[in-house]
Amino acid sequence: MSDQLQKFMFSAAPVRGEIVSLRNTWQEVLTRREYPAPVRTILGEMMAACALLSANLKFDGTLIMQIFGDGPAKMLVVQCSSDLSMRATAKLSGDEGTIGDSASLVELLHTATLVHDDVVDESYERRGFFSINALWKNKIAVLVGDYLLSKGLLLSLDNDDFEILKILSSAVKQMSEGELLQIEKARNLNLEESIYFEIIKNKTASLLASACAAGAWSTSGDQLVTQKLRQFGEWVGIAFQIKDDLFDYGDEAIGKPTGNDIREKKLTLPIIYTLNNCSPAQKKELIYIIKNEHRRKEKVSHVIDVVKKSQGISYSQQKMEEYRDKALQLLHEFPDSEVRKTLEELVRYTTDRKY
User: Residue 130's domain spans which residues?
Assistant: First the structure.
């Protein structure tokens, strides 16, 4: 093991990459004047939530301390999208009240899924830093994910947030079903577009949907409002995932290598569209490469070129914008306000982002 890697393991902690990513995102948003004032308010509240989340993570044992860094203070909220959505939808649907514990639950669940995803995908990098499984191997990474999940569920029980627990537990079920469906369908490289959307709805969009639903329920207690904002979150989550899949065919520095989905034999919307609209001979060639030559860099580059020439990218962008527009249209069922404008900015950022 190199001295640099060893130093990273025992002093900086694997979650540092997520923390740096979060801080950069906050800094970018807070310094952009065109964002409405509520964005700054909500992000300030998220900073305060970090202290609450740290307080809910009281680690025992040196191994846990080494994984997460110098105590719970380093275990910050690691992704801002779900927490920002939760807080904004809470404000949209009623007086915000106290939603800190619910936000902590969402982020604990989110972090657990990221840790487990890296194990399933055999990914050794996240946001430009080593993943936990890269440093500690799969066994410990799985246990860390389980630990975070259990802490989140216990947090909701401690506060008698049974409806929130129901919302988030449903998301866990959906995410697991989506992952299993994807693994099952990976054996058959003739994936239908409808199955792709079912997978990303369960794997990705369910978390954002549950965050929005939890925020709405925490403040309104209204099932109709909760369901409406859950649907909003689902559509935004689908648009988010399509954007993420498009990054695999781009050149931006996004913290993960391009062509990675092809190397993992993972069929996303750009390649699905291409396979369904190219000639039989070309389809046979592409499937052969994905199945048998997905580790060869030049072959992966060839697949990417074919996808671009076959309009797979433009079609995927069109579908992404359709879900974005549906989410924006649903928002307009709520009264015009600065909070609604904030959510509109968040939706547009989801599809316009560069990483």
Answer: 3-352
